[in-house]
Write a structure and sequence with these properties.
mainly alpha, 2 domains, 7 helices, DnaJ_domain, transmembrane
């Protein structure tokens, strides 16, 4: 390390220690936290300047000292964020529940599986297997379509 850098580092340490000593006993805990945040920020910025760290890390380091002020603001807005997320969840539940709960008709089940009205049990099983292999959610298919295919199979095998 460059000698001037060592001197600057020593002055920062001594100044911080002097400032910390002047704090009342009841405020030393928060003063310690502030010093730690400042030292981490300075260290991360030094690493970014010397090319030992990505610039995004330096940006995060720049935000660290202000975290004490930003955190209450973020927490104040979190209930509205949580409300937004809850509303989206409710909308998804409503979309899922909008599907009528009526039982699928035999004609609808035959149409979904692509079968003729005179299809037997083996035809139903083969058609189901063929479609579910293509449309299963584990193979990037749709969960809704897989459920409809299963429902059609169950209806025809009753």
């Amino acid at each position: 390390m460059h000698p001037l850098g060592l001197v600057l580092f020593a002055l920062i340490i001594l100044g911080s220690w002097y400032w910390w000593q002047r704090q009342p006993d009841d405020k030393r805990g928060s003063a310690t936290l502030k010093l730690i945040l400042i030292f981490v920020t300075i260290g991360l910025l030094a690493m970014a300047i010397t090319g030992r760290m990505h610039w995004l890390g330096a940006l995060i380091a720049l935000v660290l000292p202000f975290l004490q002020k930003l955190l209450p603001l973020l927490l104040r807005f979190l209930p509205s964020l949580a409300g937004t997320l809850n509303r989206k969840r409710q909308q998804k539940k409503q979309q899922r529940s909008n599907r009528p709960n009526k039982q699928m008709s035999r004609d609808e089940a035959l149409e979904i599986l692509g079968l003729k009205p005179d299809a037997n049990r083996d035809d139903v099983i083969q058609a189901h297997r063929r479609l579910i292999q293509k449309l299963h959610p584990d193979r990037d298919g749709s969960a809704y379509l897989a459920a409809r295919i299963n429902e059609a199979r169950d209806r025809l095998l009753e």
